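The protein record passed on for reference:
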Amino acid sequence: MAFEWGRIHKWEENIERDATDAVRDYVLEFYGVEELAEITEEQIDEVMAFREEINEYSPMQWGFSNVYNEWENETWTPEEEE
């Protein structure tokens, strides 16, 4: 019988969640804030600049992408669409 791993997507989801939680927690602690919405655009730019320096295949890339998306969702205002 050939090797197989049923429901591997569940493991991938767990890894992505762990990476996202780790990045979020570190960013919040680093900037001394309680929520991502308190992070300024300059600060999130610093975080994303750091992300560009790490290996593009790092599993932490998921975490940085997710945290950035969360930050965008929390700081978005309707005026930005106009």
User: Anything to note?
Assistant: The chain has one domain: 12-73. Residues 12-73 form one domain.
